[in-house]
Write the structure tokens for this entry.
Amino acid sequence: MTPSTGAQIIARSLRDLGVSVIFGIVGIPVVEIAEEAINLGIKFIGFRNEQAAGYAASAYGYLTGRPGVCLVVGGPGVLHAIPGVGNSSINAFPLLLLGGSAETHFISKGAFQELDAISLLTPHTKLALRPSSLETIPEALQSAYRQACYGRPGASFIDLPADIIQGHLASTNGLPRTTILIPPPPKPSADEPTLFKTAQLLKTARSPLIVIGKGAAYARASNSIQTLISRCKIPFLPTPMGKGVLPDSHPLNTASARSTALKEADIVLLLGARLNWILHFGSPPKWSPHAKFIQVDITAEELGKNNVDGISIQADIATFIPQLLSHLQNWSYNASAAPFTSNILAAKEKNLAAAAQKAADSSLPMTHSAALAAIERTLSSLSPPDQGNIVYVSEGANTMDLSRSIFPVSHPRLRLDAGTHATMGVGLGYAIAAHIAYNGLGAQPGEATVGVGGVDAGKGGRKKVVCLEGDSAFGFSGMEVETMA
């Protein structure tokens, strides 16, 4: 049946783009979009606050590699959703925000929930636009969807006035038959001179370190990174959401000796990780003043940031690593060339012993470490980490920081936390997103786990989602427990 209203065109366009779930809160005038989407088999998840809905949609984008869609009313609905836009942009999560607005002929007259959302969101999104007519809706949605996931992922916004949503086509002749599916984003590769220079620099390293960020997890680069580590024997450090790209149990994982690894590393390969506050800007005293960085990122604008004297490479990580391996050939790191590896092992042994002692503390009231360790033992006995059947979401300073080391992860995209902005209140929205991404309508066995190289986030199938909340963090979005139900 050919759609005749704006709401029907919007819903059909979303379906044709492959959208299977929408997060948000309905009201006038966007309720008609939600109703038409549900009629087409798209699941709508109604939240209690637009902020949590925006967080959920952005996390869904990260987990699936496709823009999460968030639908909100105009005015206060858009304002409440802005934290999700900021969270998407800073973490490079693909998000498409759809906001209702007042009728175009009432603009500047004090209309119901009137807000100039385009001017407000243009500086904070990759694209913010308003369809000029019903006929241009499919093209607008296609452009916004593409912008959200091409290049550096981020947020796009479409303003949908009530007269566009509720309008009727005079004729369907000018309406495209279908919205064209967006092809996967281009995967840039490194040039040969830069690859040669990178390989030569790595071969000179006495204390090499690979830092694995959440960008590597998003790029579905787990298989190629495992090959790189296996062949070259280079120690690695995962960032908080880079955990699981390689198993935490891997012998070359330096996470439990982080300070030693940072301080002593001389050549550092950054894979989808930024030299921001999480990595101390790549600067002393946390890092050696002599450390050189090789930065691999999908975004040209990120290159060279806090890395003026190093090598900067714009490339898709999963594409770059096989290229690098061809230049490294049979080279592997000689651990006996410097005390780096032995120093890391010594620091690991010391730190793990201290952590075990804290976890065994039986004093009352229970400490954070003891409580989290008891939960970890129970969950691991029910589902061993190597099976990849549990997604961990954590937020709140002590809860998040301690759980990062206490709960082992063996597969990518199975740990979500407050992220680059250290955002409080993301937990319950993230947990809902993880449940839908791995278990929801339209999720195939292993969806959100399958990359170019195959399944890399567990064995596929349904996953349990465990949300570890600090008490203050829970207060930001506690009512979303009702959404979970």
Remarks:
- The first helix runs from residue 6 to 16.
- The longest strand covers residues 95-101.
- DSSP finds 18 helices and 16 strands in the chain.
